[in-house]
Amino acid sequence: MSTDTTPSAGTELPVKSPCVHVCVLDNQDICQGCYRSGMEISQWGRMSNSDKRDVLTRCHQRELVSGNVFVIAPSS
C-alpha cells in the first residue's frame, strides 16, 4: 500500500487554513488569531484556492495594520 501524498500532475493541494485556534472576533468581526472576517471563516471550506490566497493576503494586511506583527528588517 502506497502512502505517497504527492499530488499528481495538474492537481493542486488545498491552501492551508490560517487558523491558530485563537477564535476571538473583535467589534469589526475580525478574528484576533488569524485575521479573517467571520464571513471568510465560515466560507473557507467552500472557497477556491485562488480565493483562499486572496483571503490570506487580506489577513496579512490586517495583521500589519493591527501592529501585532514583528517585521524583521534585513541587516546591512
Notes on the structure:
The protein has 76 residues and is mainly alpha-helical. The protein has a domain at 19-66. The protein has helices spanning 38-43, 49-66. 9% of the residues are buried. The model has no long low-confidence stretch (mean pLDDT 89).
Task: Compile the SSE list and pairings.
Layout: H1 38-43, H2 49-66
Pfam family, one: DUF1289
Protein name: DUF1289 domain-containing protein
Organism: Oceanobacter antarcticus
Name the features.
mainly alpha, single chain, 76 residues, 2 helices
Q: Give the overall form.
A: flat
CA gyration radius, whole angstroms: 16 Å
Compressed to H and E, one letter per element, the order equals: HH
Instruction: Give the CA-CA distance, first to last residue.
Output: 52 Å
What is the number of E strands?
Answer: 0
What is the residue-averaged pLDDT?
89
Q: What can be said about the biggest beta sheet?
A: none
Helix content: 25-40%
Number of helical segments with 4 or more residues: 2
Q: What fraction strand?
A: under 5%
Poorly predicted spans: none
- SS-derived structural category: mainly alpha
